[in-house]
Amino acid sequence: MGFDLEWVLMNPVDHFLREHASVHRKSVERSDFNMDYLLEGLSERQLRLQPHGMNSLAWIFWHIARTEDGFVSCIVLGRDQLLDLEDWNKRLRVSPRGTATGKDGVAELSESIDLEALWAYRDAVGRRTREGIRALESEKWDAPVDIADVRRAVSAEVAPAYFEQWLPSKPRESCLYWWGLHHSLMHLGQVGKLRGIVRGW
């Protein structure tokens, strides 16, 4: 059984960047595998649909983008989120600043969000994550999450206050892989299933 020697020798930053490209569109970074196909052939109506009261595709992609922007920016990279730097809420035509909504909020956001702005925002978040990780100093990469990082996320309305009780001292690298990669992969699995449902709706 063969193995990929390049993968074995890859450092953690390069590994993350390779995998991260796969959960974004080619417009962020070309990869051997990008997620563009999940959007192909879908109409605006299908992207906004909530079959059986489920979250819409539009809401899921907003949630994925907000989670990567808020948590990777504030906690992993120790800086303000993109949402607050470029007036994205106004451009997206949504009011929530967090990463989730209640059921009524799902319906409202699904109907009102500007889809072109959503794709632009998610692309911008992905590029900013990649730029930030490349520039992250090795000392910061190895350092655990600090209480100031968590408070930045709480202040930005990204994380609930109770995160201050358990997140400090957790490995920064594990936070990056969860909020910058694995969380997206989990929801893209939902997208794949929901895509099949809305196409027949």
Could you characterize the architecture of this molecule?
This protein is mostly helical and 201 residues long. It has helices at 5-9, 12-22, 44-48, 57-76, 82-85, 88-92, 103-112, 115-135, 138-142, 147-155, 163-166, 172-199. It is globular. The termini are far apart.
Structural class: mainly alpha
The mean pLDDT is 93
**SSE order, as H and E?**
HHHHHHHHHHHH
Number of E-state strands? 0
Give the low-pLDDT segments. none
Secondary-structure map:
Blueprint: H1 5-9, H2 12-22, H3 44-48, H4 57-76, H5 82-85, H6 88-92, H7 103-112, H8 115-135, H9 138-142, H10 147-155, H11 163-166, H12 172-199
Helix pairs in contact: 2-8, 4-8, 4-10, 4-12
Short description:
This protein has 201 residues and is mainly alpha-helical.
Main attributes?
201 residues; mainly alpha; 63% helix
